[in-house]
Amino acid sequence: xxxxxxxxxxxxxxxxxxxxxxxxxxxxxxxxxxxxxxxxxxxxxxxxxxxxxxxxxxxxxxxxxxxxxxxxxxxxxxxxxxxxxxxxxxxxxxxxxxxxxxxxxxxxxxxxxxxxxxxxxxxxxxxxxxxxxxxxxxxxxxxxxxxxxxxxxxxxxxxxxxxxxxxxxxxxxxxxxxxxxxxxxxxxxxxxxxxxxxxxxxxxxxxxxxxxxxxxxxxxxxxxxxxxxxxxxxxxxxxxxxxxxxxxxxxxxxxxxxxxxxxxxxxxxxxxxxxxxxxxxxxxxxxxxxxxxxxxxxxxxxxxxxxxxxxxxxxxxxxxxxxxxxxxxxxxxxxxxxxxxxxxxxxxxxxxxxxxxxxxxxxxxxxxxxxxxxxxxxxxxxxxxxxxxxxxxxxxxxxxxxxxxxxxxxxxxxxxxxxxxxxxxxxxxxxxxxxxxxxxxxxxxxxxxxxxxxx
Length: 455
Description:
With about 450 residues, the protein is α+β, with helices and mostly antiparallel strands. The protein has one domain. It has helices at about 15-25, 55-70, 95, 205-210, 215-220, 255-265, 280-285, 300-310, 320-335, 400-405, 420-425, 430-440, 440-455; strands spanning about 5-10, 35-40, 90, 115-125, 130, 140, 145, 155-165, 170-180, 190-200, 345, 360, 370, 390, 410, 415. Strands 4, 5, 6 and 10 form a four-stranded antiparallel beta sheet that branches. Strand 15 (about 410) and strand 16 (about 415) form a beta hairpin. The protein is globular. The two termini are about 25 Å apart. Mean pLDDT is about 90; it is low at about 1-30.
């Protein structure tokens, strides 16, 4: 590599293996190896391979990196193996939305290139669920090949809502409202439901995938056994019975499933998991274009792309203000944030590289679904997840998003303009924690934010 990396000795300066064992297993303390992290706080902080990779793994990572950044083109083309884009799509490459493997944001009103915000669509049914739209499927594609019309042009209006901290300091939250223009396959009616989704940063996905299912089931409390108002549940996917781990609603059971789903829905690229693209029946009649192979990404390229996503290393925590960060760590526990944003987990035996089996790491998530209240619900169901249920987002690396991606738009649709606003949007099971933050003195709020930014 072009630069020397200083590998952090621990997964997090403030979380020990003992904490991980107490939280996950409730067992006696014992020594557990810690997953290595990357001590880099630059714009490249999310783009390093895990230091645990051997030479073969590093070569596979490099190949996957090239595929991740490649622009797919219309078939047929001389770029064999990278043709078959569309005909409907949201982006031409994985890195279009995950710039430098980071997080996307909603577009500004005057931006022509509007990568980074996807809009899911469905049709409300009588039993309160929703089904794919008969003409637009499950996701609106706002780009298309030449001589084809995109499904829609999507405009976002931000509606302000004023609030105050207990000490009188004002804040303003923004609620998105989506308007669909230039619909190519007919208007949508009042039964249509929409939900915006931004692209998260990609660090440590292989470690999250390696948390044993039994540990997640053991940690879940669907019936709130301890009566603390928090009742996270494992998302058991109705079509397969697998456990969902990835996506804003924990709808993908593996990095493979998440990657293949993004390829077919975001770029129109078929794969061994999705051999048919996502066009609806009416769109197959309207749109007929050459394919880039059957499937368009073969099993070998898909495997390398998945390995790349699994093997991106998490960055090391920073300690710019150790006193404030340590105080914030205590507030994080006292306010109840750690009940869902669980600091540490330990991988099982099944992991993308053997060297990371049985290691502890600090993602600050429980991967469970939690009801975050009506104000964050967007009417969109996903699998068995209701509109108000969201997977606990991992917090590691969150303080580096402004450095890597030049913004701090958070939550599933990017409505929050920073960590404080993201907290203030929490309701439902997290309402008590939100109110502890909102009513805390400004110095305590600042310390909590300093801690979260240090992760």
